Amino acid sequence: xxxxxxxxxPSPRRALLLALALLxxxxxxxxxxxxxxxxxxxxxxxxSGQGVPQGDPFPSRPSVEARKDAQADQALAQAxxxxxxxxxxxxxxxxxxxxKAYPQTTAGQEALYRAGVLFYDSQDYxxxxxxxxxxxxxxxLHPQATEAKRRxxxxxxxxxxxxxxxxxxxSLAERAxxxxxxxxxxxxxxxxxxxGLFGQALRISVDLAGNAQTPEAQxxxxxxxxxxxxxxxxxxxxxxxMEDLPSSNPAWPVLSFKLARIYYHLRDWTRLEETLNRFLxxxxxxxxxxxxxxxxxxxxxxxxxxAKTVGLLLPMTGKYKAVGEAVLRGVKLALAGSxxxxxxxxxxxDVNLAAxxxxxxxxxxxxxxxxxPITSDESRRAALxxxxxxxxxxxxxxxxxxxNIGPFIFRNMLTNSxxxxxxxxFAMKQKGFKSFxxxxxxLPYGVELANDFWDHVVENGGQVRGAETYAHDQTTFTSEAxxxxxxxxxxxxxxxxxxxxxxxxxxxxxxxxxxxKAMEKMKGGVEPIIDFxxxxxxxxxxxxxxxxxxxxxEDIVTNACDARDVERIRxxxxxxxxxxxxxxxxNAWSSSKGASGMPELVERxxxxxxxxxxxxGFFVDSQQPATQRFVKAYRQANGGDPGLLEAYGYDSxxxxxxxxxxxxxxxxxxxxxEALANVKDFDGATGKTSFDEKREARKPLFLLSxxxxxxxxxxxxxxxxxxxS
Length: 725
Prior knowledge:
Layout: H1 12-24, H2 70-83, H3 88-101, H4 106-121, H5 125-138, H6 145-159, H7 162-173, H8 178-194, H9 198-211, H10 215-229, H11 235-243, H12 252-266, H13 269-282, H14 289-301, E1 306-314, H15 321-335, E2 341-346, H16 351-364, E3 367-371, H17 376-389, E4 393-395, E5 409-411, H18 416-430, E6 435-441, H19 444-459, E7 463-470, H20 478-484, H21 494-506, H22 512-524, E8 534-536, H23 541-553, H24 563-573, E9 582-585, H25 600-605, E10 613-616, H26 625-638, H27 644-660, H28 669-677, E11 682-684, E12 687-691, E13 697-698, E14 702-707, E15 710-713
Parallel strand pairs: 1-2, 1-3, 3-4, 4-5, 6-7, 6-8, 8-9, 9-10
Antiparallel strand pairs: 10-14, 11-12, 12-13, 14-15
Helix pairs in contact: 1-11, 2-3, 2-4, 3-4, 4-5, 5-6, 6-7, 7-8, 8-9, 9-10, 11-12, 12-13, 13-14, 15-27, 16-17, 18-19, 21-22
């Protein structure tokens, strides 16, 4: 035998198979199960398309040495005679009686076969399967073994034992010819598909299509191939079959176009174009040809970039419509008067539409960069597609770690972690606080911010002395306030226990009323344990206006900057020193102006929220020049005041405009990505923005102080004079 000459260069499809095999080697795909297996049959194979049964699934030699027996032969002959007039099931039982009486005889095996045939003909497939299985296990060389296997396989198919049916029928098909082989293959494909062995079913269907004798049979086989490749057979199955499939096979165009779509999904543009070009050369008139031409044109357009076209993904309809409209107002204001073409795709808050819109902006519009989306799930899906297509995406989501998806993903939006870090830095580095307490709602927003704040405090050498959570719709906070200062579980305090003893001693012999009054007075006089300097409350302003008064009831003084009120408290209580605590918050504290012209937080919270400080990503009344310019322009263009979404949309679009209007404006997506990554100290409405090594926008946030006159921005030089003691 002459050695084969080996081509060391892998074919495109072999390269795909190798890549996919490496990709899938870390996980094992469980194979689907059928309706059950017999103890003497194989359990089936994987759905890879290579796992067809090898040889006969039954023993190769008899397990019982059957012998001739005259008495058994006579009993069999009598059973045959009776079967000619008896009902089929009754006749089958007669044969089984012979089998039971003479189990190790040739007559007994023949009786078992005849019983199986009668059960099969009467559609009692359970007993037919049992009879044929027993016969073939004992004697796979029985004269009627082939017919027994055929009926066994079809019985298994009828009762739902699809893996057994597939193995038995396919092993027969390998040895059959003509119409019988075609029928066995069709039954094998049906069994494999029902067993979830889609790769095997696909391979058989492709074989049937290539050997069909009539147009109708060919059409049926190709239709089954098309059904299997749409969401059933895996891409490994398709790639393996296509490896050696001639283009003359009627199923070739279906598999070829599916392979092209796999390459498209993998973003393997070279092999995609190669596969589509061959498809169009071999099958230019196929029903898939128009789609193939469009896919090829789209793949070609991926490198065609319109240097002045910018995409925008926003929910312009649906439940997030107001959010999308707010961002769009800011973006349009930023691009007003420029020659930049803005293409908006409505995501409707749907992740699939976000991905689809991203592809359309890349392939159909040639956008050099894309802004958005807003919601977490949308942004993640769009970011995955953008990274695959290598389109710079400046997303406006709060989703943490979104930029970890890849180097083409940037983010410019206020995040929970940034807020927690900013307010903790203010409290610890500017105020010098070291001990804190927290009150937070049992919602993702509250829990995430509380955890981030706690982590940052610990990292900087501080301590969290108390943390209490509450329901998101709670309206009273007496219990939580008591727990923070140690007044809830009084039985655990030594000073309270001593107080009880004193009251009991002093009221000995007095009536119950006097004892109760004395006990209440003592209990009310238990001092609060305030071992923290600030309380962090990551909740919306309505809840804060309810929490703050509850804290005051427990003698937690929060308005330290009001010297007159502190002095009044000192005189009322007779204490020389008053321990004060600062309340710290997040951007959820921001509120619109009420009837008095003051923020509603101040209107409702009153003196209990004064002297507090919270953090935000935008402040409409800021004195920063860039912010003032934006607010003025927004009011002129839209009327009313802008909010955080308008401001971040504006700044993001202004950054893009600045890059595209520069003398060395980027002409490709790669150049734009590099230019955006190098943005430093962009002076925008939300502050001076720079992108760090993770492509996260970094900027000093707005620290806002609450007073009885409203909310004002805290200049860095004045933060040390705020509250505290």
